[in-house]
Amino acid sequence: MFNPFPSTRLPCGNRVLVFDVPKVMGILNVTPDSFSDGGRYTAVESALRHAEGMVAAGAAIIDVGGESTRPGAPSVSEAEELDRVIPVIEAITRELDVVISMDTSTPAVMREGALAGAGLINDVRSLRRPGALEAAVATDLAVCLMHMRGEPSTMQQAPAYDDVAGEVGAFLAEQIARCEAAGIARERLVLDPGYGFAKTLAHNLELFQRQSELLGFGLPLLVGVSRKSMIGAVTGRPVAERLAGGLALAALALAKGAQILRVHDVAETVDVVKMIAAVEGFRQEQN
Q1: Half-sphere exposure (CA, 13 Å, Cβ side) for 233?
Q2: Is pTM, for the whole model, over 0.70?
């Protein structure tokens, strides 16, 4: 099955994502310690040039993150995250026509990022930090809710589930209800199963196999598995050699209903989307 999401639009600030075909979200880590590309794009100019390259390669969204969420990652102060993220969002807003996503759980970053031009809040903690839900409501931006237990520093310490897909679904249902009760319109929500967050390899594989069960919410699914350890665990490849495995999972994610693919390797993933769209007969219309 391809493109089963019943709605076609996601309002993102002053832009709208139209899901005529699934969209590719390019990862822009402005941190010194991210697991794959930490330290490469901490300067505003280098971050902007990388964003420019991803947009040219076909990215519809640029996801800017100033706090690493890799397993064991330390926390970052609010001031430091603001200093890392806001100048980059401002530069991208000035230079590029693209939806900007903020990979953040910090209320001040959400508020300031919205003012700087961001259109989507991508929160691995699902707005559970104090003040985050209120900040998201105030921005009126789209929000991606992700499943995770605990914190990045502790999440991989013996995670356990009786029914991983069912429990992920129940968590997301609770977060959707919480957002709607606070005044966030359902049409502004995106869901992320949270592959690699508080999950073993077996959990990730089972959840991926059952991903289409999450389509019952009628909301777009974001999948982020690019270069992650689940690929390394299966293939034995180090981070720098996980492209093939990542593209295989990208294709499977689309087949199971994903509408947004969060990736490091934009050009290659865009080709996957184009080929599947061509085979399945979807017309690519200009947004």
Answers
A1: 12
A2: yes
